[in-house]
Amino acid sequence: MQTIFPKWSTPILESVSSIGLLFFLFLVGLELDLSSIRRGGQKAFTIAVAGVSFPFILGVGVAFIFRKAIDGADKVGFAQYTVFMGVSLSITAFPVLARILAELKLFTTRVGETAMAAAAFNDIAAWILLALAIALAADGSSEHKNPMVALWVLLSGAAFVVLMMVVVKPVMAWINRRCLHEPNAVDEAYICLTLAGVMVAGFVTDFIGVHAIFGAFVFGLTIPKEGQFAERLIERIEDFVSGLLLPLYFASSGLKTDVTKIQGGMAWGLLVLVISTACTGKIFGTFTTAILWKIPVRESLALGCLMNTKGLVELIVLNIGKEKKVLNDEAFAILVLMALFTTFVTTPAVLAIYKPARSSMLSKRKLESNTHDDDHHYRIMACIHGPNNIPSLVSLIETIRPTNPKSKLKLYVMQLVGLTERSSSIATLQRLKGNGFKFINRLRRKEYELVNGIAMAFQGYSQLGRVAVSPTAAISPLTTMHEDILELAENKSVRMIIVPFHKQYRRKTDGGIGPEFQVENVGHGWWEVHQRLIQVAPCSVAVLVDRGFGWKSEEEAAPPSSTSGVVKRVSVIFFGGPDDREALAFGGRMAEHPAVKVTVIRFTAESHGSGDQHAIIPMQINEKELDDAAVHDFRMRWEGKVEFKEMTKVSNTVESVLLGIGRNSNEQCYDLVIVGKGRRTSLNVGTTEEYPELGPVGDLLASSNQGIVCSALVIQHHGNMAHSGTQHFPAKFV
């Protein structure tokens, strides 16, 4: 250990880690939304008070035992020791609790919302008590104590908080308002000024006798949580702080923790005592208060376990106690192990006690989209990664909006937020907790006007009574994101899930011959989410490959001609099979829209000899009959409104025809091509499949190197892949 951390490096290590700690507490204050405390109400307040007071009182009793059992503990002032011990047992780590709730998918449940509100109260109370403990320790431990020193520290600290809230907070609000009008980014001068302010606030509180971290924490509270400014601050410093500086603080804390000081049965007995006292006080206080509020027993017990979460904040308190010479090496080691144990057992304890009933993810419920039993109540779930997905979603929903007043379209919009260890992920998570259009309006400001207009459009649809919109958010690690999507789909009995393709094509605006696209990949993790969703979805799934379907070009922005009035041109490619029948039914919903022109292109089998190497794999008779019946019914229903074309399925010309449709090189240009994922046929579109989850035709239309300019909607019928024993991928073209 001396080789890795020689003695001469200790001051440098502690100095750098202290700077990291300063900015970490600034991030904690930035994450803590004071408005959530006001929204928590009386229930969260009383639960928080009980969760702090019970373990604090028990901590005072433990302090008596520690002062008798640990050598040197009785030399510290009684008030200092008891307050530090009470704080160490009663604190709840707000950032750690937020991550645990999100990982357990409890953040938007009643337990999660109550826990977060109570933890916010708890956090504020713990910092006040810690400030009191530091003030009591400010006059030293000798016999020359002066109570006026502690009083000065307390009054100065209170004056500092008032000054920050009265003077600095309006200044930060003014800076935030200025940043709202920045077209692209936050002015670097504001960021530098704020980061310098963190250091100044820490210096001031350290000067008046309160620890420097209080200044950084209070300064973080003064910054408005809405808008782009807070997000940009977090993005700028969180990786540097969490990835480099905080690990150094953990290393410094670990070097100070000497577990060998815990010797003998008495010391280990004290460890068991402090662990049981901390757990009992926090859980019992929270549980009994929650029961009085008529919260169910299991939820109350889970709430108590969640409020027992310790973490880095606990280590900070203990390190301050050691720094102020209130805790010696033995007491410090015992309390550090207590903090680690209580944090480690929280997640498994909550999982064992409370787990919300979840629907079976592999339900065999089959939702036939081409039946007409509930056509008047059509439910669709649409997932979005960010603001860029919203225009195409709105355009797509507009094309299937029912014109019959008796028909209803219910749209569930779910924003997918990947949970990471980044502070900004937790900050975003808190903003999305409210399940509503607020999560749309609080995205990045450079897209605010567009997204706000989209939200107003959604609300307009709801007022028309034909599209009822219910926005929500899924906040999970990418490995389990599909479970949240499937749960909502099952609970709401949706008929189709629409997800955006993991690659986003943005039309370039620099001019040139023909349209050019810039490809943005949202990440391989999202591609895996879509893969898992397609495999186990309880309903049909549609993947939208967007090439500007919701963004109007100059030509599209012009008023439509008086003769046609057509705004969107849609093509439905039909080869046959359940996926294509689903695509045909979806196209039928668009056909009734007066501003949508639908063209159905059916590929029929060519006559061939037995020796033809491209012979069509025979379809089952019932599949052929179902295809013919679906096309016949479609023709009868939409005759005169839909254009029908038939082409012979010649293997060496199908690919060129599809490319012509995708490139808009034919006589008619299409904005959207709807195609089924496909079943095994003789079609050989391309030698390799870059995106096998889209099928061969969808893979071709999603390709970025084929000159495709129109958007594509690839539909997989429920049961055509994961719930059947036969592989239904279309064969590749050779």
UniProtKB/TrEMBL annotation:
It is a multi-pass membrane protein. It comes from the Eukaryota. It is found in: Membrane. Its main location: membrane. Residues 10-347 form the Cation/H+ exchanger transmembrane domain. Residues 570-718 form the Cation/H(+) antiporter C-terminal domain. Keywords: Ion transport, Membrane, Potassium, Potassium transport, Transmembrane, Transmembrane helix, Transport. The keyword Ligase does not apply. One of its GO terms (cellular component) is membrane. InterPro entries: Cation/H_exchanger_TM, CHX17_2nd, CHX17_C, CPA2_transporter, Na+/solute_symporter_sf. Belongs to the monovalent cation:proton antiporter 2 (CPA2) transporter (TC 2.A.37) family. CHX (TC 2.A.37.4) subfamily. This is OLC1v1034805C1. Residues 408-552 form the Cation/H(+) antiporter central domain. Signal peptide: none annotated. One of its GO terms (biological process) is regulation of pH. The chain crosses the membrane at residues 12-32, 44-66, 78-102, 114-137, 149-168, 189-219, 266-293, 332-354.
